[in-house]
Design a protein that fits this description.
The protein is 49% helix and 25% strand. It has 129 residues and is α+β, with helices and mostly antiparallel strands.
């Protein structure tokens, strides 16, 4: 009987340990995914704005919409995304955003990761003499 209780206690401790590791790894994976997705979406959006082969954006709203579309294509997880636009200027290629991702942990509690990024397109002009 003593061994049954000992085995039961060890099993419960192992399950709790596995859930803790899954939660910590899940949070880390979500943060990495969000960082990569935001970086890629910002870069694609700003580069497309100044690429003559793609359509041109004519307002800040279109610029933000392009970013949000690029961001949502990058994210594969089941989550809800909140996008706070901190600053935008489509003519200068400036976009500053805060992204908050909310998701469920394996134990059912809600988790949250966030990232703030700002991108400014640098344009160089070369004069040929």
């Amino acid at each position: 009987m003593k061994n049954v209780f000992l085995g039961f206690g060890i099993t419960i401790c192992a399950i709790i340990s596995i859930v803790i590791v899954m939660t910590l790894c899940g949070t880390n994976m979500r943060q990495n995914e969000l960082n990569r997705a935001v970086d890629s979406a910002l870069q694609d959006t700003v580069e497309n704005q100044f690429d003559s082969k793609t359509y041109s954006v004519s307002s800040n709203d279109e610029f933000v919409a392009d970013f949000m579309e690029a961001l949502l294509v990058q994210i594969n997880s089941e989550c809800s995304i909140i996008v706070n636009v901190l600053d935008v200027d489509y003519q200068k290629g400036l976009l500053s955003v805060e992204i908050i991702e909310k998701y469920k942990h394996p134990i059912g509690t809600e988790g949250q990761v966030s990232v703030k990024r700002t991108v400014i397109m640098e344009q160089y002009t070369v004069t040929v003499s």
